[in-house]
Amino acid sequence: MAVQVQGVVARSKGAPVTLETIVVPDPGPGEARVKVLACGVCHTDLHYREGAINDEFPFLLGHEAAGVVESVGPDVTDVAPGDYVILNWRAVCGNCRACLRGRPQYCFSTFNATQKMTLLDGTELSPALGIGAFAEMTLVAAGQCTKVDPAAPPEVAGLLGCGVMAGLGAAINTGNVGRGDTVAVIGCGGVGDAAIAGSLLAGARTIIAVDIDDRKLETAKKFGATHTVNSRTVDAVEAIREATGGFGADVVIEAIGRPETYEQAFYARDLAGTVVLVGVPDPSMRIELPLIEFFGRGGALKSSWYGDCLPSRDFPMLIDLYLQGRLPLGDFVSETIGIGDVEAAFEKMHHGDVLRSVVVMGS
Ligand code: APR
Ligand code: ZN
Ligand code: ZN
After folding, report:
1. Ligand nearest to the CA of 216
2. Which ligand is nearest to the CA of 108?
3. Minimal CA–CA distance to 319: which of 145, 104, 86?
4. Whose CA, among 41, 85, 211, 326, lies 20 to 30 Å from 73?
5. Within-domain flag for 251
6. Residues with Cβ within 8 Å of residue 114, at least 6 apart in sequence
7. Confidence tier at 352 by pLDDT (50, 70, 90)
8. Ligand 2 centre from 79 Cα, in Å?
């Protein structure tokens, strides 16, 4: 039987979000219905509300979530009712050219639930990033559910579903940060701080945090930054070189998505170093650099999609490290809020007051 629950909906461009009754169908083949326990508020939710992603309104927002599988479709075998899971954006297909070459983290044919959740009048909802988890219940492809240790509280576990995973993975997976490396992270919001935490976990020797907001730099220290640079007052490239014996960092992670900070990243790495772009630029942005510098500096210029994560590999491992006290995922949770507080959380996010506000269902 389809169920009716409360969900946070963006009805039209720029309008404040509203709490609406939504209809969540029974899971069909390949689908799972999940009782959401907690869901973080991310910039991407705000971008959906502002019409900056696409114009397929109304959106059911929320996509950084943990919950418990309530029911599954007839053919689903990899998760079962009662499983404690983190939701991810995309189920991996297993058959595309990336999957067949053993690189499912790059799957080019990922998918979400087939059936649509709707408003009471039958209007179809577009779930944010194929999830839609500011709701008491949501419908996803079963492959979007990854089982993890239920000892991790949902407001913490859910964060791996998006921004924190993107940052951790930018360092660990894409940047391949290793023991003894020097790393610089430009932009220390949730994504940048996660890149710092990932670099620390991977054994980096020097971790330089760059931001224009001193509050962010203070927080970055808590996650493992050994040096901080306020690039409003100091030249970021010079400061990174200074902190690395005059050479530049082995890995520079750009966690904002802007041409000027990408250029800083490009020039702040050592010869044969790696630049990782995890911040998402907008389509109008352009960059112009001398081609000879691309050649002369060698190394690698990479982008990190969702931290190049493979949920089945990375989520349970990172939750275990958290439970062992080796990864401070709890420090990303600035506050827990109720499902009716998402609009207020957007406001705080906009002012840079929080790393993550997390909706806890029933609070
Ligand atoms: N130089 C240095 N730091 C900057 C600059 C700049 N020119 N402009 C902004 N910042 C800092 C902000 O002060 C803030 O601390 O970058 C940080 C960005 O953090 P958030 O806005 O909290 O964003 P976050 O959630 O970390 O995401 C960062 O990754 O996934 C993408 O879409 C996301 O592009 C975004 C990026
Ligand atoms: Zn997100
Ligand atoms: Zn695939």
Report:
1. 1
2. 3
3. 86
4. 41
5. yes
6. 28, 29, 30, 31, 141
7. confident
8. 23
